[in-house]
Amino acid sequence: MDFKQLISHSKEYGFIFQSSEIYDGLSAVYDYGPMGVELKNNIKKYWWDSMVRLNQNIVGIDTAIFMHPSTWKASGHVDAFNDPLIDNKDSKKRYRADQLIEGYVEKIDIKIMKDVAKAKKRFGDDFDEVQFRATNQRIIDRQTKMDDILGRMAALLTAEDMKGLKALIEELEIACPESGSRNWTDVRQFNLMFSTQLGNISGSESKLYLRPETAQGIFVNFLNVQKSTRQKIPFGVAQIGKAFRNEIVARQFIFRMREFEQMEMQFFVRPGEEMKFYEEWKSKRLTWHKSLGTDASKLRFHNHDKLAHYANAAADIEFQFPFGFRELEGIHSRTDFDLIQHQELSGKKLQYFDPVLNESYVPYVVETSIGCDRMFLAMMTNALQEETVPDADGKDSKRIVLKLPAAIAPVKVAILPLLKNKEQLTNLASDVYHKLQSHFNCQYDEKDAIGKRYRRQDAIGTPYCVTVDFDSLEDGTVTLRDRDTLLQKRVHIDQLLAEVADSVSMSNLLEKL
């Protein structure tokens, strides 16, 4: 399904709403509806359980959004947390210069993928994509051009050469997507942090920032966590929390927002061992994504050409969204930059005494950071499908179905009395609902024909529907319908809990890791 259909579906079925919609909305800010909040909470739970429950040497923390302003001076955000912006003089639209260049490169990549798709169709099972990419001259030339442009852009960004970025945009003849004009302003830096003040006194002494990332809350609490939990290196600290960035170019639905949620883990290691753990966590995080049923072809690693000021290695796990491959999760080797900076600015030692080496040192850090909202969008992208299936009369009909993994589906079971005007059926269906509701998130639905109710549950991703009919009154059995296979079977009400619980358990996902 295309991106517009996904956005429409998200609103219609209560997953995502535009924030403050009755006042015409607020750009790049969204609210999670009744189905959305359930799915988002399930994604967070799976991440948390996989990080904290399954690892004895990883603990959790929940730090404040407001932090001492010196935190952001030490981290480099005050001086270096900038985006290169450029305006089109004709359309009056503002863009990130690097995203304009990346968009140009993406168009070349799309041409490559079209050539690959055509060749795959032509050669069928005998097609070797790796060999084709390595030997087809047109693809080689295009890939060389892409690599050259991205390499030049990375060098310009590293050097903070704003004139060079504009010159590259002009050289590539990149036009404004809105107007088609190439009449650009100069490129300039824009800091992304939101600022506010402590109390009601305005002034530099009371200036605070909304945190642009959750990681610094972990770093400043490094020793508190280590001493209180008696952890030995290597160990990790995990956190889920809101972060805020004043994105000038916020777009693509919930992919890039001004208020968003991060799921981060900082792993503290001995200096010199960071690259071993960096590779290890790259592998672990890719396995986590695949455990959710994501096809390997929709995931890829992208190594950073331009490293952040704190990193000595960085890679993204990219997912194939409807608008192309984009960053879903970052794995970074942050060195000892953050702890050293906080140690110097605060005057407090942030060192670990290693009993094995019998020495103290500032640990290095390997970070895994995933956007919860982007993960939500990836799961919706993966799951939302249109299918042709037989209806009650045996004829083909189309259905919209959200094929989420059962463990993270917003609703696990829907209880449906066959008819709403038969008190015996509705009473028994209510009894079944109350029997299950303390174990799973359930829905009770008696409105419309049973076929329409099935379709509503398919659209929100409910793995199982339980239909209470007249036979249920006689023998205590109900019809259990599977969302994906459409198979139906009779199950005794007393066995219903066990039948469903095994299939929707989070342990089914955790055991894949």
What does this structure look like?
There is one protein chain. The protein has three domains: 1-74 and 207-373, BirA Bifunctional Protein, domain 2 (2-Layer Sandwich), CATH 3.30.930.10; 82-191, Herpes Virus-1 (2-Layer Sandwich); 405-510, Anticodon-binding domain (Rossmann fold). It contains 18 helices and 23 strands. The strands form seven sheets. The chain has a seven-stranded mixed β-sheet, sandwiched between helices. Strands 20-19-21-22-23 form a five-stranded mixed β-sheet, sandwiched between helices. Strands 5-4-6 form a three-stranded antiparallel β-sheet. The longest helix is centred in the N-terminal third of the chain and has 27 residues, at 97-123. It is globular.
SSE order and pairing:
Layout: H1 3-12, E1 16-18, E2 30-32, H2 34-53, E3 58-60, H3 70-75, H4 77-80, E4 82-87, E5 94-96, H5 97-123, H6 129-135, H7 137-158, H8 162-171, E6 188-191, E7 195-197, E8 207-209, H9 215-220, H10 222-229, E9 235-244, E10 259-269, H11 274-291, E11 299-303, E12 313-321, E13 324-335, H12 337-346, E14 352-354, E15 359-361, E16 364-371, H13 372-383, E17 384-390, E18 396-402, E19 413-417, H14 423-436, E20 442-444, H15 450-460, E21 464-468, H16 470-475, E22 477-482, E23 488-492, H17 493-504, H18 507-510
Parallel strand pairs: 3-9, 19-20, 19-21
Antiparallel strand pairs: 1-2, 4-5, 4-6, 7-8, 9-10, 10-16, 11-12, 12-13, 13-16, 14-15, 17-18, 21-22, 22-23
Distinctive features:
single chain, 513 residues, alpha+beta, BirA Bifunctional Protein, domain 2, Herpes Virus-1, Rossmann fold, 3 domains, 7-stranded mixed sheet, 5-stranded mixed sheet, 18 helices, 23 strands, globular
